[in-house]
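User: Predict the structure for this protein chain, please.
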Amino acid sequence: MTAASAQDVSRGKSLWETKAGCGFCHGWAGDGRGDPRSEGGAPSLRTSALTRDQIAEVIQCGRPGTGMPYHDRFAYTDKRCYEMTAADAGDMLPKRGAQTLQKAEIEAIADYLMTKVVGKPQQVSKEECIEFFGSEVNECRLIAAGVVH
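Assistant: Here is the predicted structure, written as structure tokens:
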């Protein structure tokens, strides 16, 4: 696989923040510190051992039996997701995400994660915070002060 383009990474970040709403559960930094109103229990993606293709599959298909929704409009209508249909998944069928994503959008999010999140230390740095938000917002000052990690 070739390295993701800066444009794909930027698009993936935008989709992560807006259309897909991933930060609601996973936290803006992918560290698992999502919004208190989320279902909770979203894993830190910073310490994930998943490959880019596996991450794309999880975004596309969700995770049966967990709170991770699927974002492919046609997931579980055929056997594209884990070789299962909705009937095969039964009570384990993930919820459909609030917004469905096209394949290129899923891949852009996976590129963003592999470039900016996966493999990073669990402790988010002030510099990462400023890069993400584009300026030193209050969250970044709290990180620098050790109040938020």
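Helices lie at 6-17, 23-26, 52-61, 86-89, 103-116, 126-133, 138-144.
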